[in-house]
Each structure stands twice: as structure tokens, then as C-alpha cells.
């Protein structure tokens, strides 16, 4: 999974963030079947990939000061949209 996420980060040309940051996750699901805790569990893989890709130096609280989760629905195009907000 990490390699897919890192590939997308590079495709989007996301550069090194000025830390500390907070990160917003918009989880766009196809329906309401999955529990929120199962949806949000993907956050770890995204944070690790951001670190591996060099966008953030580490995912510790020194560099990532907040995480925000929101859920929306799109049956035709489920996805995750990640917004990195520099302080």
C-alpha cells in the first residue's frame, strides 16, 4: 500500500512541507457500510508515506500537530483527499 501512496504523492508533485502542519483527511466512501474507525485506519499508511516521500520529516507531534477527519460519499468515485495545512 505504501508504494501506491508514495507514487500518488510523487504524481501530485507534493514538495516538502514547512512544519509543523496539520493534515485534513476527506474520506470519500461509496456508501455508509464501513465503520468510521475502519475508514480512519488508513491514516497511518498515508502519514508513513508522507514521511517516506520526504513531505514531512516525521509523523511525530513535533511535525504534525493535528489531524482532521471528514467523511463524504460518492458511489462512482470513492477516494481520499489529503490537505496539508502549514501553520
What does this protein structure show overall?
By secondary structure, the protein is of the alpha+beta class. The protein has one domain (2-86): 60s Ribosomal Protein L30, Chain: A (2-Layer Sandwich). The chain is 29% helix and 31% strand. The protein has 3 helices and 3 strands; from the N terminus they run αβααββ. It has helices spanning 2-11, 36-40, 43-52, and strands at residues 21-29, 64-73, 79-86. It has a 3-stranded mixed β-sheet. The longest helix is centred in the first third of the chain and has 10 residues, at 2-11. The chain is globular, with a radius of gyration of 13 Å. The termini are far apart. The model has no long low-confidence stretch (mean pLDDT 96).
Main β-sheet, spatial strand arrangement: 2-1-3
Large-scale geometry: globular
Oligomer: single chain
Can you summarize the main beta sheet? 3 strands, mixed
Record the SSE blueprint:
Layout: H1 2-11, E1 21-29, H2 36-40, H3 43-52, E2 64-73, E3 79-86
Parallel strand pairs: 1-2
Antiparallel strand pairs: 1-3
Supply database-style keywords.
single chain, alpha+beta, 3 helices, three-stranded mixed β-sheet
Describe this structure in a few short sentences.
This protein has 87 residues and is α+β, with helices and mostly antiparallel strands. It contains three helices and three strands. It is globular and about 35 Å long.
